[in-house]
Amino acid sequence: MRALLFSALAALTLISPAFAIVGGRPADADLKAETAMIVSTRGASCTGVVLAPNVLLTAAHCVQPAADYAVVVFEPAGPRLIPVSRIAVHPGFDPASFDTRRPTPDLAVVKLSAALPADFRPATLTGEIALPARRTAFTLAGFGVVKDGDGKSAGTLRMVDLPSIGTTGGIMVRLSEGPAAGGCTGDSGGPVLLGGAVAGIIGWSTAAGGARGCGGVTGATLVGPQRPWIDATLRAMTK
């Protein structure tokens, strides 16, 4: 496991300094303290939201299929990996939902083998269960790429403001704005904030017109309706 994880770290160190989130801007210090980057031996990367010193909330598809996962901590001496030791996927999540277009809660809670550095802190999660009104303004953040297919642009936390354009099945909120802006590869699992609290977790994105890609619509699982599962899982992870 260690050899595989360090292979992932070696690949990460080759990423050029760049920005992520399509059409976004560098994230502020408060957001950086509540958000972490997740990598895997599958060569994929995602974003996670800090729930406790050693627990993150992310998207379920970010920790499937089976692989070794770790959080990257960027330190003065260079990136350091903290392996994921335990994963809990929301029982209602269906990996086939991306094909069937029937939304399910794309959420997972992961426990780390060691605590994050002291400059990280838990994010505030919303308890709101009502669906957001159309045009509600949200802020998205993630470590993903700035352009679909540009892997070298990942690794820097970016943020972007987008309004809601609707909801799906009482589970997800859809976000979009022109010109092209939104989540992209590597932003999955990142926070969707409303009033400083995490109201959703990024799950997917499309290009304009619903085509495969980025910069069209971003979908996120709403956190409020799933708080009972999130809170119970967090308690079990921190016993």
Automatic annotation (TrEMBL):
Residues 21-235 form the Peptidase S1 domain. Pfam families: Trypsin (PF00089). The keyword Disulfide bond applies. Residues 1-20 form the signal peptide. Keywords: Disulfide bond, Hydrolase, Protease, Serine protease, Signal. The keyword tRNA-binding does not apply. PANTHER family: FI18310P1-RELATED (PTHR24276:SF98), POLYSERASE-RELATED (PTHR24276). Belongs to the peptidase S1 family. This is Secreted trypsin-like serine protease.
